[in-house]
Amino acid sequence: MVALQDAADGRLARVRVPGGRLTAEAMVTLAAAADELGNGLLDVTARANLQLRGLRAGAEVAGDLAGRLHGAALLPSVAHDRARNVLASPLAGRAPGALGAVGEVDDIVALLDAGICASDALRDLPARFCFLADDGTGAGREIRPDVIVVARGVGHFGVALDGRELDFEGDGPAAVALALGAAEAFVDASGDAWRLSETPGGARTIAAALGLALEPVARAVRTRTFGPGAVSQRDGRIALTGLAPLGQLWPSLLRELARLSPAGVRLSARRTVTLVDLAGSQVAPMRAALAGAGLVLESGSGWVGLTACAGTGACSRALVDVRAAACARALSRSAREPAEHWAACERRCGELPAAPVTVAARAADALEVRYHGEVWDLPSVAAAAARLELEAAR
């Protein structure tokens, strides 16, 4: 059965989406589950996974949901489900700066997921541990994945631990085998650690367990920003991305996406939905359809880079209505401003590592604002928003 967790709006279930890839069948299945078992809302998480919200309690619901997810290939192994955190660029090798052949990154994602589910040891991976299939652009590294399989050219891959490259290069299957071995070594060495960086000795400990050295000099990483709009792929076709405000999806949107893109879509940790491999003639009508379905397609939107946790009404820990605050900020901020996250309590759920601008509630009348290393304690949501507007105007 699927594990259900308590939330203020009912139970929630996390659905792992390796590589952010959702098939049309999966979208139709999730839409029906949200309608029939939940409150009709799904959240895209900071790991490009999904959360079904407002589920009723009870083993019957958990069993029903598990059966639906398994039938749509979203739950290949209940025992391994929390370990199936595999990130990838939404373009997955299609970006102009990507390395290797188009399709290789998708193969790496599939091999990683299958390997995780085949390993008894990886049942014990913490839910915060994650892998990245990097197509050479660095997209996804902002999450600070624990283990990265990185493309270096057609048929050639390296492996990095906590961002540090191992002295290794091999083909895709060899790189995946090494990445899985690194995760198994982490399970053996981690103790109470949830991330590789928290393990005693960090990457060096895991590298030594693998019998490999870390490269002495860090390789340059070309982390690419990714937002709404159309992008030319390296093969001449087009990728179209829409941003889901506050990371929320809903059944009618999922059904429309399944209709528009039978080949599926790709989610990202930036709460985006991407359709790849479009012909030029498809872009304008597809853009209109996605905008009509509720996604943001304009790169200049104030929603670009703006996120918030579940907030009041959805989380019992929430101290302030950060979602209302984010909606107000979206109307006043510029897409050129730094990425900004609002959290309704000090747990800071959904906040990316090294986020440049954050607002977190310590109490209903005490909010901490961090802005590029500066910190202010302010008495209200309005005061926090005003401070951010002041900094942006400087």
Proportion of residues in extended strands: 15-25%
Mean pLDDT: 93
Largest β sheet strand count, sense and barrel closure: 5 strands, antiparallel
CATH superfamily of the largest domain: Sulfite Reductase Hemoprotein,Domain 2
Task: Describe the structure concisely.
It is built from 9 helices and 20 strands. It is an alpha+beta fold and 394 residues long. It is globular and about 55 Å long.
Describe the structure.
With 394 residues, this protein is α+β, with helices and mostly antiparallel strands. The protein has helices at 24-37, 59-71, 104-118, 172-189, 202-210, 251-260, 280-292, 322-332, 381-393; strands at residues 5-7, 10-15, 21-22, 42-44, 50-55, 86-88, 131-134, 147-153, 156-161, 164-165, 229-232, 238-243, 248-249, 265-267, 272-278, 306-308, 340-343, 357-363, 366-371, 374-378. The chain folds into three domains: 5-81 and 226-292, Sulfite Reductase Hemoprotein, domain 2 (Alpha-Beta Complex); 92-210, Sulfite Reductase Hemoprotein, domain 1, CATH 3.30.413; 306-393, 2-Layer Sandwich (Sulfite Reductase Hemoprotein, domain 1), CATH 3.30.413. It is built from nine helices and 20 strands. A five-stranded antiparallel beta sheet has the order 1-2-5-4-13. Strands 3-14-15-12-11 form a five-stranded antiparallel beta sheet. Strands 6-7-8-9-10 form a five-stranded mixed beta sheet. A hairpin with a 4-residue loop joins strand 14 (265-267) and strand 15 (272-278).
